[in-house]
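2 proteins. here.
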Amino acid sequence: MSQITVEIADRSDTELWNRIIDRSPHGSIFHTWEWLEVAEKYSMMKLYPLIGYRGTTPIAAFPFFVKKIGLFNFVFSPPPRLIMPFLGPVIIDYDNLKQNKKETIYHSFVRDSVNLINSLRPMYATIITPPNLIDARQFLWCGFKAKPIYNYFFDISMGKEYLWKRLKKARRKNITKTAKEFEFRVGNRKDFDFVINGVFTRIQEQNIKPKLNREYLNAIRRQFSRNLQVHLVLRNGENVAGLINLTHNDTVYSWLGNFKKSIKGYAPNDLLLWRTIEYYVERGYTRFFEIGANTQRLLRFKSGFNPDLVLNFIFTKANPLVENCVWLIKRLEKWKS
C-alpha cells in the first residue's frame, strides 16, 4: 500500500473536499467546506483543512482550528461555542474497508495529522470525533486523553410504523392527545428567530450566560438555506415550540430548539419531535441524529422515543500547566454552583 501523505487544502480544493466528506460514512454537514468557512470567520481562528492522500488518491480529511493567544497556540476540532457537536477526521468508504485496511489508513492518517498539529506546539488541543468512529487507539498512542460522549440516533429508514411502535406507550398517548389541540407546520425566517429567541430565554432561565452568537446563527441560516428547516407546533395559530434541523445527504441533525414548554395536560415537545421524524421519513431520509445524550436532565424526554445510543470521543492533550489551570477552573465553577 502506498504511503499516506497529508497536505493542507485551500479554497481551490472545495469541490474535492466536499467529495471526500460525502463519501465518508462519518462525514457531516459540519465537515463541509462551506460550514468550515463560516466557522473560521466567527470563531476568529485559523482553519487547517487536512487532506490525506494514498499516492495521488484522496482518502481522508481532518479539519481543525488554531487560536493564537500571545505566543501560544490552542487547537480545536470543532471550535467551541459554534454548536458543532463534533468534527475530527473522516475516511472515505471507511465502513466498507476490511479491518486491516481501516487500521492502516486511519491510524497512519491520524498519526501524521497529529504530527502536523504537534509542529504548531499547541498548549492545548481538543478533538471531538464523529459518532460511531470508535477507534480511539491512535489518539491515545499520540498522548491524548479520551472521554466517551454520546448522541441518540434513529434509523428512520425503518418507517413510521416501526418507529411509532418503539415509542413508550405513555409517549404515544401524549402525542395522540396533543395532536387534537395542536398543529405542526414547517416554518420560515420569522420562525427561525422564534426558535433562537426561545433558546436564549431557556438558557437565561437556567442562569447560564448565553454563549451563542446570533450573527453566526444567521450566517448559517443564509449559507445553508436549503439544508436548514424550522419545524413548529402551534396552538390556536400561535407558536408554542420550535426546532431547527439540518440535513446533509440522507442524514438529519436535530440541531437547536425544542426548549421545554410545559402546558398542563399536553406534550407539545413530544408532538414536535415525532412530527419532525415523520416529516423526514416521508421525504426519504434514512438517518436522524438527536444531538446530545450527555445531559442527565434531558434523558427522560429523549430516551422515551427509544432511539439507539451512539458513541464518540472527545480527545484532549494539554501542557501540564494548562491542564492544572483547567482543572482548577472547573473545581471553582463546581464550588460556586
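next one coming up
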Amino acid sequence: MSPRYWMITNRTVSTSKETPSLGESIARDLTYWVSEGGPLTSLKSWKKVSEKLFRQYLLQAADQFPLIRDPEEHEQQQHVTLFVHGYNNDWEDAVNRYRQICEDLYSPQRNLGLCVLFTWPSNGRLTSYYPDRRDARKTGDQLAEVLNQLYDHLVGKQKEIDPAHQCRAKTSVIAHSMGNYVLQEALRHCWDRNDRPMLVSLLNQLIMVAADVDNDLFKSGELSDGSAGDAIAQLTYRVTSLFSGRDKTLGLSAGLKHFGKRRLGRSGLDRNYPVPDNVWDIDCSTIISPDPPESVHRAYFTEPPVLDLMEQILKGVDRRELLRLELIPAIHRTA
C-alpha cells in the first residue's frame, strides 16, 4: 500500500456509522489514518491504522525518495513534512487546508516529498479562543510523542554506516497560527525528554506561518535558558517566521490576551532582544495581494508568491539567494 494522504490526530472519533467524523474533544490516545484519495472530509475515505503500521508505511514511502549523496545537491532532497493547523479550524476545515497544501505545495511538479496532517481539536468557533488555547497546551504533550519517535529514528539513522540505510528524507514542519503554540510546547517536551541536546537537528526547516505566539519567543538569543524558544532553536536547523501587519485575526488575538506582548505572526521578531542565528522572519505584507480571496491570516496558503517562497525555504535555499531571486520583499534587502 502506498498512501497518498496521511493524518495523525488527538481528536475524538464519532461513533456514527452513517457519518463518522473527528470531533472537538481531546482523545486519550493519538490515532493514525491513511487515505488513497476520495473526499477527504469524509472519514470513510480514511483508513485507521495502528501507530506501528503507520510508521511502517511512512518509512516505506520515504525509502522511495532518491538518496542524495552529493552535498551540493542537498536542496533536491525530499521532505516528510508535518502540517499543524491553527485556531478556529474544525476537522473539515483542517482537512480541506491540508488537501490544498498537498495539491499546491507538494505536487509532483515541486517534488518536495510528502506531507502529514496533524489535526487537533481547535473548535472552529471564534468564541472558543480560550478553550482552544487550553486544548493546544494539552495537545503539545501528545504531539511530543510523535516528535520523540522521530527523534529516536533520526538518531538511529545517523549511526548508519551503510549508505543504503541512511535517511533519504529531510524532516520539516509547517505550523499555522495557534498550531505554533502546539508545536512550541511539543518541542519543549521533546527537548526536555532527551536531556536538552544541543545542536541536534530534529527538524531541518520550520516555517512558522502567522504564528500566534509571543514575538519575544526567541529572546534568549545564542544563550541556552531552557525556554520553549530555546528548544525550537536547538532542535531546528532553520526557523522562518512569516508575518504580516495586515493580519487582523492576530490583532484580535493580541487584544484577548492582555499579556503585553505582540504576536510573532503580526509584528515579526522582537528586535529588542538578540535572536538566534538560525531564526529569521519575513514580512509578507507586500507579496500577499491587496484583496486576497481569504483573510490575510489564511492567505499565505493560497497566494502563489508565498507558496513559491515556502518551497525555496523548505529546500534550504540560503537567505541571500532568496533575496537575489527577489522572492523576499525589498524591505529585507538591508537586513
